[in-house]
Amino acid sequence: MPAESGKRFKPSKYVPVSAAAIFLVGATTLFFAFTCPGLSRYVSPAVPIYNAIVFLFVLANFSMATFMDPGIFPRAEEDEDKEDDFRAPLYKTVEIKGIQVRMKWCATCRFYRPPRCSHCSVCDNCVEEFDHHCPWVNNCIGRRNYRYFFLFLLSLTVHIMGVFGFGLLYVLSHVEELSGVCTAVTMAVMCVAGLFFIPVAGLTGFHVVLVARGRTTNEQVTGKFRGGVNPFTNGCCNNVSRVLCSSPAPRYLGRPKKEKTIVIRPPFLRPEVSDGQITVKIMDNGIQGELRRTKSKGSLEITESQSADAEPPPPPKPDLSRYTGLRTHLNLAANEDSSLLSKDSPPTPTMYKYRPGYSSSSTSAAMPHSSSAKLSRGDSLKEPTSIAESSRHPSYRSEPSLEPESFRSPTFGKSFHFDPLSSGSRSSSLKSAQGTGFELGQLQSIRSEGTTSTSYKSLANQTRNGSLSYDSLLTPSDSPDFESVQAGPEPDTPLGYTSPFLSARLAQQREAERHPHLVPTGPAHQEPSPVRYDNLSRHIVASLQEREKLLRQSPPLPGREEEPGLGDSGIQSTPGSGHAPRTSSSSDDSKRSPLGKTPLGRPAVPRFGKPDGLRGRGLGSPESGPTAPYLGRSMSYSSQKAQPGVSETEEVALQPLLTPKDEVQLKTAYSKSNGQPKSIGSASPGPGQPPLSSPTRGGVKKVSGVGGTTYEISV
Amino acid sequence: MATEVHNLQELRRSASLATKIFIQRDYSDGTICQFQTKFPPELDGRIERQLFEETVKTLNGFYAEAEKIGGSSYLEGCLACATAYFIFLCMETHYEKVLKKITRYIQEQNEKIFAPRGLLLTDPVERGMRVVSIYEDRCSSGSSSSGSSSSASGSSSGGGGGAGSR
């Protein structure tokens, strides 16, 4: 049995190509045998020669179309996709001549399909510039053999017309002997030719139009550019010349690999680098590093965001695996995250808008909200603000893997929406998952990761449940079809990120709406500031800074809740000053570790105190009730922590926790800050500037989360 | 002072010892083959920016030359048609010729610039021209900043001798 192992031999797939070959060769042979001798005698000997040349041309193109590699991409090696394929987003958007084009993750081939590439289910290969799978040649038509297929169609049309025409001529000149063998055969050949002429000519005309417009059959049939602009066209003449006159593209499979030897001799050259630059590389997790390298936050941010774009954007590591515990996290995070992050390749420059310089601004702003550890302490009030700040940190925007249109961070909107609604349901699951108190946040992060603007690769196989839940949360309006969306600048989205799920956009809009509602909850709260995605991280950083200031200014109070940023900082803890890079880097689907925040939290905020008391706090000030719609994560931290004198280690611990979640957390943080009532803003500690807007009082919905924390979500 | 001979294939196989940095394609101009010239942060400290950018720009130039539609490619197509494509058995296409030039160029760059820095550039055609991968030799990065993307704390084996661990 030939079909036991490997590919099954399916004779059925050879039927069309066999039939086509038989008809073509058979009919033409009959034509040559029966019609051409008479024609050469009566008309001219050039007739058979002409027909022979055309037939040879048809055969050559038919063979090339059948046997030539259409441009199959080899499967990506394992090193290209270091992360699990269910963590990275399903889509990656790239801007081509101003038009956003989505690149989909191919689970089989394990890379993001280049534009115009598609996976053929018949051949089980990704084909470059995939046109269609032609059963008549039993091969995919792609970049390499499209020219031959097109010429085959043209020549076949010409050939059919010639056969039919000359056969008719023969018959008309032999009307008196219609029953003769030659004439009968000629008439049969004419019938076959006439029968095939209509579909072949139709297909030829169709492809002539396609070539003129610079489209592939796949694009035409799926309506990708219907009513839109085709970014792949260069004008009719250039399109035609590109199809017919360009040099045949090379094949990727079966290339000979030569072993090359390179002699590497020490000493190895190293360009001069400053410590600041060096530290940048450690992305999340290097809590120690973060502490020392506050200065490099900015650069860290930059580098983080740039490296976010890996070929298969590794999903934000912050998943469950990371949350084995604070301790483990601490131990593992540094190596894991940094290595993971570092492996990301620089994001596509066009895919996201990177905003540098957050570190400087955010650092100052974050001062009041520093001491991310406070969040864990239960400074719910503060937390949201800091979180909001951090989430707004511009670094998020540089999420390359996400569709850049108005969606800054896929998780922002998504997680944001999730938090309030799913907090209750998730808390239990989260709890079981970890026990560190981040449960909610983690779950959210996980969810948010999954539902990040483009569901993760793993969800590709699923129905994107995450996004569905989003949609239910948000106004289910638009369909996530961004493929040929014009990349117009979104006025309210500094990041050119568009989520395939419009829900993210809605979330963003909602955030914008909510911004005005934020009101500082306590006296210590900072003045409300509209929470926006882009400012989120800044706010968080600001809150962290403020916290630090507070710490310095007054002895840390256990029950002090004036650190709005605690919660935020806890979550965003990473961002801290210069966290921006982290967030931005985290923006990249794969990893956004809020490591950057950790350094800010360094000043150890013992404010957490009263974990119990603060649990219900969310983001508000101590006196204010549990109003702050605090980011669930931060809350969980604080509640679990229950350590009034939160020490630096706690902060640090928080941070590593955060980092693993990294983008997820950050995203949720962002989303929270955005979507959630600006209660986060209120979390900012009293003194110092109130970078974060306090949670709004009006229309606030309280959702209880894990550990008794309540989140206020402004409705 | 030891001279380590690194077989490129061997370095690639020993993935655990190498960190890989990927330079993605730049699709801003359509599907023409060009790579992003943005400097990856992981290489910060390993190689000078100018060298890196120059390498990528040269590669992009090569690919542009390969895909150029001009008289030579047109004639090549006509010749192929006239010979019913049998000419492809004897002659290699213009694109393949440029690919060979690219391979030679990459080899030369590796020898002169990348290998002394513990890096290795791979030919993108091996991965379907989707990405240029740079293999970073962790062992040789000991002298570099600790924050290097290689991240492996063990990578700092110290000095060039560490490279011989492979």
TrEMBL record, chain A:
Keywords: Acyltransferase, Cell membrane, Lipoprotein, Membrane, Methylation, Palmitate, Phosphoprotein, Transferase, Transmembrane, Transmembrane helix. PROSITE patterns: DHHC (PS50216). The keyword Transferase applies. One of its GO terms (cellular component) is plasma membrane. InterPro entries: Palmitoyltrfase_DHHC. Its EC number is 2.3.1.225. Residues 467-478, 668-677 have a biased composition (Polar residues). It comes from the Eukaryota. Residues 359-373, 422-432 have a biased composition (Low complexity). It is found in: Cell membrane. It is a multi-pass membrane protein. Residues 102-222 form the Palmitoyltransferase DHHC domain. The chain crosses the membrane at residues 14-35, 47-67, 148-172, 184-210. GO terms for molecular function: protein-cysteine S-palmitoyltransferase activity. Pfam families: DHHC. Residues 289-433, 467-715 are annotated as: Disordered. It catalyses: L-cysteinyl-[protein] + hexadecanoyl-CoA = S-hexadecanoyl-L-cysteinyl-[protein] + CoA. PANTHER family: ANKYRIN REPEAT AND LEM DOMAIN-CONTAINING PROTEIN 2, PALMITOYLTRANSFERASE ZDHHC5. Belongs to the DHHC palmitoyltransferase family. ERF2/ZDHHC9 subfamily. The DHHC domain is required for palmitoyltransferase activity. This is Palmitoyltransferase. It comes from Myotis myotis (Greater mouse-eared bat).
UniProtKB/TrEMBL annotation, chain B:
Residues 140-155 have a biased composition (Low complexity). Signal peptide: none annotated. InterPro entries: Golgin_A_7/ERF4, Ras_palmitoyltransferase. It is a lipid-anchor. GO terms for cellular component: Golgi membrane; palmitoyltransferase complex. Residues 138-166 are annotated as: Disordered. GO terms for biological process: protein targeting to membrane. Belongs to the ERF4 family. This is Golgin A7 family member B. The lineage of its organism: Eukaryota, Metazoa, Chordata, Craniata, Vertebrata.
